[in-house]
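Give me the 3D structure for Molybdopterin-dependent oxidoreductase.
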Amino acid sequence: MIETLLKQSSGPLTRELVQSPGSFGLGNVPTRLTPSSTTTSICGYCATGCQLKLHLDEEGNAINLSPQANYPVNLGMACPKGWQALDPLTATDRGTVPLLRDPATGRRQPVDWNTAIATFTDRLKGIQQTHGRDAAAFLSTGQIPFEEMAFLGLLWKSGMGFLHGDANTRQCMATAVTAYKQSFGFDAPPYTYADFEESDVIILSGANLAIAHPILWQRIMRNKRSPEIIVIDPRATETAQAATVHLPIKPKGDLALYYALAHCIIRDGRIDYDAIKNTEGFDDFAAFVQHRTPEQAAHQTGLEAATIEKVARLVSEPGKRVSWWWTMGINQSYEGVRAAQAMINLALITGNIGKPGTGANSITGQCNAMGSRLFSNTTSLVGGHDFANEDHRNKVSVGLGIPIEQITSDPSLAYDEILRAAEDGKIKALWVVATNPFHSWINSGRLSALREKLDFLVVQDMYHSTESAEIADLYLPAAGWGEKTGCLINSERRLAPIRPVRKAPGQALTDFRIFRLLAQSWGCGGMFQQWTDPEAAFKLLRDLTQGRPCDITGIRDYDHLDESGGIQWPYPESDADPHPSAERRLFESGQFYHPDGKARLLFSAPAPLPEPTDDEFSFTLLTGRGTSSQWHTQTRTGKSDILRKLYPAQAYVEIHPRDARRLGILNNQVITVRSRRGSMKASAYLAPTVQPGQLFLPMHYPEVNRLTHPSFDKHSRQPNYKACAARLEV
Ligand SMILES: Nc1nc2c(c(=O)[nH]1)N[C@H]1C(S)=C(S)[C@@H](COP(=O)(O)OP(=O)(O)OC[C@H]3O[C@@H](n4cnc5c(=O)[nH]c(N)nc54)[C@H](O)[C@@H]3O)O[C@H]1N2
Ligand SMILES: Nc1nc2c(c(=O)[nH]1)N[C@H]1C(S)=C(S)[C@@H](COP(=O)(O)OP(=O)(O)OC[C@H]3O[C@@H](n4cnc5c(=O)[nH]c(N)nc54)[C@H](O)[C@@H]3O)O[C@H]1N2
Ligand code: SF4
Ligand SMILES: [Mo]
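Predicted structure for Molybdopterin-dependent oxidoreductase (730 residues):
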């Protein structure tokens, strides 16, 4: 089909399509493979970053896979999603051809790539000319290689001259990013996974590892030091049930708890005086927590004062290695930044940072959220730089050959601000790449009105059937994991490549190739002349990191990464460790990234819940991951027969049996869950894993975000997905 298409068309676009170098995009038959061989690739789901070994047929197509035994991350293990990673590639709703909505019929019609690319360019140029550079935005992801992300961010801002773009990492990691930047002076999760095994006390807060990061949970199981495992979670999750201590905290009681812990630790002098010398603000922090006693915290946390005292002793035991870990129970909050920093403070004042088995450690969500954080050119200038810093802009200009006047110093709107501007009619077009906001964004019911306001919605996805793709004006079919190459960065800052092992279906192209076509059509192809393939882009971006905390100039190429079992940043050329595979943790010298080398102790008083329960909506609704076999909006995991068998097809809501009895609700009864914003049907799942007065809905069902409350952390603008008021209707 594509051959016919190419024969029919001519011109530079066709040449670009035909001449695609390397092993991606059109006709992307896997390369670098010998017949009946194997190759390796990092799993494309979560940020654990397991390496998979792919078994190939004579043509280089993957026929099967197994987890890599000698990879330092997963050590021969994989979770169900990893094992079934090939299944979603052959789904029948894969996009095989671009689709353009016909205004006359309102239906999407197949078009060739030339038409699709020309439509994109014409429509967006028109909007830019009439309404300016503020009138369109992209929304992207933490699930494509960072070469592609950097390409998108640079193409949009420097090539096409727009200003606004953000990624779904706002839904996920913005809080950790902001917390680290403010506290350490750079977005730098300090740990290495070996810390799970070398810790004496492991605190997991708002992190359900057994479900969301099963292989990291396995790493904890390998800890031979009989660690104390303290899980802080309102729910008795699988992780909490396996812990030595479960603190069933009231939703969003975290700040009060950590401040009370700091109170006890400082009161009892169980602090590390040498470590405190490397911090700024200790006296103010000590004064701030002086009256924040465990007794006071009891009400806000729902925990007894004696329990808080006991935990304070556990986490400040002299000579013990204590590590603090958190995920979405902390990040997705209206005061997540301060909650994350409250944990960072506890690690800092007890000297639990920069040593084996310690750290204030944010666990990342998506396979390349860490790459997005450094390279997507959204909140940070590409390569871990600052838009506001003139030296940084000059460096990027010289390094990438982009005229300095085409590197803006202006910040982009954040995700929620972009959507609000669209609702207000100020943003006329959205380009959605590898994310599904019409399912995953908070208070999603509001988005249908927003769709009406948009002049032009482009969705670039593997599937034409996602909630977002189905309502797009223009749909661009993308190749996915397994069909392309590029580099991912996992939670512990480890870079490693993915490899093409299948041919993308029909005319689907890699995101990299789509960006090349768009650059050419827009007229800024010259700016990306050197971006011939992902590995060439990798080298440009690598060189750009020189002198930054995330300096990776010592990495030669993808093969170097493969040979080394991945390499953690920093890995500067000037100081290249002769053992690239050595586990690297940050801050061993006690020096942080602020100009004075000191970490900041930051804090503020806990604020009330944005939407507390009341007589009308008397339940607190929590949302999150359901099972280890479901991924987000199910566009990929929902295509695997095996994975689908591992979870209920219909939405379910977890209810405490006592509440169910009170309301006369039976197990499996279909009921309505309602908030002030919307409602959904769900089958009742009676389980004492949620506390009385609380409900839990897995985020994987499209209706869930009709209920969530649009409140945001004021520092990070991350949505507060995890606590709003709801009620049940029978
Ligand atoms: N199987 C599977 N794995 C995944 C994903 C997936 O979709 N499916 N997604 C990946 C991504 S992108 C991410 S970001 C991670 C998320 O990984 P996690 O953050 O571990 O998962 P969640 O279930 O969203 O939230 C964790 C826990 O926070 C708790 N929580 C809610 N409110 C509070 C609170 O106020 N305080 C505290 N302390 N805890 C609270 C919830 O009860 C929940 O058990 O998972 C990654 N891994
Ligand atoms: N209520 C509630 N909502 C939540 C959360 C919660 O805990 N509770 N968690 C939030 C979090 S942490 C996250 S990370 C978000 C995730 O939210 P989304 O990013 O919206 O979820 P995904 O289903 O991962 O969407 C990724 C999309 O990219 C497509 N895709 C995959 N690979 C490629 C590729 O290589 N190229 C292209 N072009 N497309 C590709 C997939 O088909 C899919 O449609 O959800 C957030 N929403
Ligand atoms: S734990 Fe994460 S990276 Fe590992 S196999 Fe499962 S989804 Fe993939
Ligand atoms: Mo996430």
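The first helix runs from residue 2 to 8. Let me know if you want a second pass.
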